[in-house]
Amino acid sequence: MLRMPAPDRLRVKVSGLYRCDDLQRALEALPAQAGALRMVSANPVTGNALVVFDPQCPLDAVLAALERCALDHGAPFVGAAASRPVSGKGPARPDHRRNGRPAAAPRPKLAAVIADTVRNKESWHALDAEEVLSRLSANRDGLGAAVVAERLARYGRNVLTEIKPRSAVAMFLGQFASPPVALLGLSAAVSIATGGMADAVVIVGVVLINAVIGYFTEAQAQKTIDALGKIGPTHALVMRDGVKRSVPLEEVVPGDILVLSPGSYIAADARLLASNRLTVDESALTGESLPVDKRHTFVGTKDTPLGDRKNMLHMGTIVTGGSGRAIVVATGRHTEIGLIQSLVGEVKTPETPLQRQLDEMGKQLALASSGICAFVFGLGVLRGAPALQMLKTAISLAVAAVPEGLPTVATSTLALGIREMKKRHVLIRQLPSVESLGSVQTLCLDKTGTLTENCMRVVSLRTPELDIGLSATGEFRSNGRTIRPAGAEDLRRLMQVVCLCSEVQLNGDPDRSVPPGSQRVDAEPLSADASGRSGLEGSPTEMALVEMAMHAGEDVAALRRSLPLIKTVHRAEGRPYMLTVHDTGGEEHLIAVKGSPTHVLALCDRRMEGGGVPVPLDDDTRAAIVEQNELMAGQALRVLGVAYGHCRDTSTAAVSEKLVWLGMVGMEDTMRPGMAELMAQFHDAGIDTVMITGDQSATAFAFGSRLNLNDDKPLEIVDSTNLDELDPDVLKGIVRDTTVFARVAPAQKLRIVQALQANGRVVAMTGDGINDGPALKAADVGVALGNGSDVARSVADVVLEDDNLHTMIIAVQQGRTIYRNIRKSLAYLLSGNLAEIEIMLVATAIGAGEALNPMQLLWINLVTDILPAVGLSLEPPESDVLKEKPRAPNEKIFRREDLLRLLRQSLVISAGTLGVYGYGLARYGLGPAASTHAFMALTVGQMFHAISCRSERTTVLEKRAGNPVLVSGVAATVALQAFAAVFPPLRGLLRLTPIGPADWAAIAAGSVLPFVANEAIKLLPSREPESENRA
């Protein structure tokens, strides 16, 4: 059967797809082989496949491609047998079958089947740049205001199709779609059959009230969940009338010229016009973590698969490196991601692992309770009880036995927890992240900007002849005396080189920019006046160097005017230094270099004396420089080597020329306050801390030691220079005991995270830079700082809005607390429900009549259970929540030991209630009076049990934070119970009798004694392994 909900998509039945994961993968890989198939989503559970294709492509070709794939996997293509779609247009496909089986006719290649049918489609990736400009009536200077307005009116705003959320009506009706509600309906029908019309009306009323409460709870939770992930860029940089302008994303139109740089959000589908080592993170579209290279010179064919179109950029992706310009070819719902999103008719929030686990638990409980209730029914009938009455009792007991909507309890608790975290500046962007936070075992920390203030300051200078310290006020001192750098030629030249080999912009120097053909690959992001340095804009490192030169009296602007920049060679993997070439006005050009001391030193064959004369660089001096570098790095300083030279030819990188060594600069990036204490808190919580930095090993080791990253154990450090050459299994072994990774290139962060995960660790990764994106996405919990790049914030699961790593420990605390609170709510509900089953089972088994009538069971389950459960879901963190080890990610919410504990608690509660019921039987005999005693004792006993459920190990005698919501919930429930006892209509409905003072004493004893017993049991030694202890 075929269904075509739109001209460019169809839903088709493939019987061989059922429970066939191989065929699912093959079908979903089809778009990579044929350009006209935009997307295939195959479901091995239903056996259906949803196909999105080019509307210009005939349906026959689409079906032929799908059939070929199915037949290749030995599966019949049922959908192809239909002579015509249910809706939509398309020619009938002949049925090439022989004896009920597909004919073995030769089949053309898939690309040919599809691509040859598409002739009139505008394939932007198959056109050169000038042709694209011509067809869009645009030029490289951008569109004019009038053209933009006209195209905005023609094509509409650049927004994706609004996905319809679940309607309020659907959400309300969903409250009735559950087994307990079905059982209640059956109970109402039985009541009508037995003449209990009033009972039926009450049951329906209770169902409606429960539905209203469930609706408002779910609506609030859904509102919180819908807000997740609503973070990201709002503007795009485009050319308009020859001027760069930042415009709202929704106002981008076809023909606009996008200006691209690291961190740029791609506002629409676009064809590249120019590119310089451009890389793009396409994970939002393809799921691929690694950045993809893009080239404007690439020209594909019409059938080039989407993933291989190197000259195309797509909406929702992000530039991770390089630069370029691109012309917009599609906006809004016409983009690739817009076509995919338009398939979604209604949003359904994916279930978290915990929700799936609870759903499965609910099914198991329903099955078990059904068996028990059937047994109770049979036993009652055998003992002579009326069959219809026992049927009502059994149905009511079944309703009471299974807490309604276990996954909803988890969703509501998670949503409430997310709102609480938001108050503490923790923004959760993915619902499962709340669960993962409680399981984090390893925290990978990016040093710069996370552990430090990202505000560099030069504190030390070393030349072959001088050891100089720089004070916070900019005073240069050596051997206890103040010196003037301008008076020493070697120092003056060093100051000039660090100003020239720099991209720091000055006020009054607006034209200082990277020359054409250059690319920024330094991992440090640019920041405007990040440290309060007046008139400087650039990376923290380069601003610190220029500020030092200014303190030395250097006129930076005049220096740059006298030595104009010709060429820049940036830092890159395998080239840890930056080099610039400058016009001196003569035949030779000046080369300025700064970077890794050892690498820069290897380029030098001379050094400069204090008088400004270069002299040969001998081995002893080299060894002394290396020793000085290690000494400075050992003080946790970031050390840069500085050199200069001359060249005639600027067409090469000019590094083959031997340079003159000038000296080293040591910079300090101040550690954020309280970092060492914070690391101790993570260690106490059972979380290993790992630092990842681009610093050299000695610097990283010194910094890591100051942080006590390895919790008083020897610090294990790995130099990551050759990390890419390691076999994955070897790397997996290395990362087990490594605390510090030094000299890490941006791409290597991803490998480190994946290697830790390969060891079974739950990994959280912090980051704030553009190049942190892949590692943040791969981590179990990606954590971005609030002031980080848009790339980091857009792929992270958690954003620390106050830019403070201390908030991370709060996030972990809240994650663990939320998980505990879900357990507490469920423990309260399950133990209470078990007690009800046990009471009814024992009473029926011994022929003691009905301890609880059907209406009382419904009252307990649908009225008195709700408020205390909500209160427990809002419990504040316990004092030891950060003293236990993280739970295993695959650990069941209730282990065997937990279930035994719940059974024990329920037996204690049911024993107390049965004791009161026995008292009632002895005093009043069988009938409503004894049942009233049991009803009151059980309800009040469950209120005491709610208080006991606040902790699994500590008693109520130990001091802990208050929970006003729980107290209010218990008080309200007790008030409802008292109201039921005195309000005649309600008392009659529940079949309650008056209770005397002596009776209340018995009820109090049956309620309080189980509470005391369960609290006393907590004081007994635990048999659980210490590593698995819970609060």
UniProtKB/TrEMBL annotation:
<dbReference type="GO" id="GO:0016887">
    <property type="term" value="F:ATP hydrolysis activity"/>
</dbReference>
<dbReference type="InterPro" id="IPR008250">
    <property type="entry name" value="ATPase_P-typ_transduc_dom_A_sf"/>
</dbReference>
<keyword id="KW-0812">Transmembrane</keyword>
<dbReference type="InterPro" id="IPR006068">
    <property type="entry name" value="ATPase_P-typ_cation-transptr_C"/>
</dbReference>
<dbReference type="InterPro" id="IPR023214">
    <property type="entry name" value="HAD_sf"/>
</dbReference>
<dbReference type="GO" id="GO:1902600">
    <property type="term" value="P:proton transmembrane transport"/>
</dbReference>
<dbReference type="InterPro" id="IPR059000">
    <property type="entry name" value="ATPase_P-type_domA"/>
</dbReference>
<dbReference type="InterPro" id="IPR023298">
    <property type="entry name" value="ATPase_P-typ_TM_dom_sf"/>
</dbReference>
<dbReference type="InterPro" id="IPR018303">
    <property type="entry name" value="ATPase_P-typ_P_site"/>
</dbReference>
<dbReference type="InterPro" id="IPR004014">
    <property type="entry name" value="ATPase_P-typ_cation-transptr_N"/>
</dbReference>
<dbReference type="Pfam" id="PF13246">
    <property type="entry name" value="Cation_ATPase"/>
</dbReference>
<protein>
    <submittedName>
        <fullName>Cation-transporting ATPase</fullName>
    </submittedName>
</protein>
<dbReference type="GO" id="GO:0036376">
    <property type="term" value="P:sodium ion export across plasma membrane"/>
</dbReference>
<dbReference type="Pfam" id="PF00689">
    <property type="entry name" value="Cation_ATPase_C"/>
</dbReference>
<dbReference type="GO" id="GO:0005391">
    <property type="term" value="F:P-type sodium:potassium-exchanging transporter activity"/>
</dbReference>
<dbReference type="InterPro" id="IPR050510">
    <property type="entry name" value="Cation_transp_ATPase_P-type"/>
</dbReference>
<feature type="transmembrane region" description="Helical">
    <location>
        <begin position="196"/>
        <end position="216"/>
    </location>
</feature>
<dbReference type="InterPro" id="IPR044492">
    <property type="entry name" value="P_typ_ATPase_HD_dom"/>
</dbReference>
<feature type="region of interest" description="Disordered">
    <location>
        <begin position="82"/>
        <end position="106"/>
    </location>
</feature>
<dbReference type="GO" id="GO:0030007">
    <property type="term" value="P:intracellular potassium ion homeostasis"/>
</dbReference>
<comment type="similarity">
    <text>Belongs to the cation transport ATPase (P-type) (TC 3.A.3) family. Type IIA subfamily.</text>
</comment>
<feature type="region of interest" description="Disordered">
    <location>
        <begin position="508"/>
        <end position="538"/>
    </location>
</feature>
<dbReference type="InterPro" id="IPR023299">
    <property type="entry name" value="ATPase_P-typ_cyto_dom_N"/>
</dbReference>
<dbReference type="InterPro" id="IPR036412">
    <property type="entry name" value="HAD-like_sf"/>
</dbReference>
<feature type="domain" description="Cation-transporting P-type ATPase N-terminal">
    <location>
        <begin position="123"/>
        <end position="196"/>
    </location>
</feature>
<dbReference type="Pfam" id="PF00690">
    <property type="entry name" value="Cation_ATPase_N"/>
</dbReference>
<dbReference type="Pfam" id="PF08282">
    <property type="entry name" value="Hydrolase_3"/>
</dbReference>
<dbReference type="GO" id="GO:0005886">
    <property type="term" value="C:plasma membrane"/>
</dbReference>
<dbReference type="GO" id="GO:1990573">
    <property type="term" value="P:potassium ion import across plasma membrane"/>
</dbReference>
<dbReference type="GO" id="GO:0006883">
    <property type="term" value="P:intracellular sodium ion homeostasis"/>
</dbReference>
<dbReference type="Pfam" id="PF00122">
    <property type="entry name" value="E1-E2_ATPase"/>
</dbReference>
<keyword id="KW-0547">Nucleotide-binding</keyword>
<feature type="transmembrane region" description="Helical">
    <location>
        <begin position="365"/>
        <end position="382"/>
    </location>
</feature>
<keyword id="KW-1278">Translocase</keyword>
<dbReference type="GO" id="GO:0005524">
    <property type="term" value="F:ATP binding"/>
</dbReference>
<keyword id="KW-0067">ATP-binding</keyword>
<keyword id="KW-1133">Transmembrane helix</keyword>
<dbReference type="InterPro" id="IPR001757">
    <property type="entry name" value="P_typ_ATPase"/>
</dbReference>
<keyword id="KW-0472">Membrane</keyword>
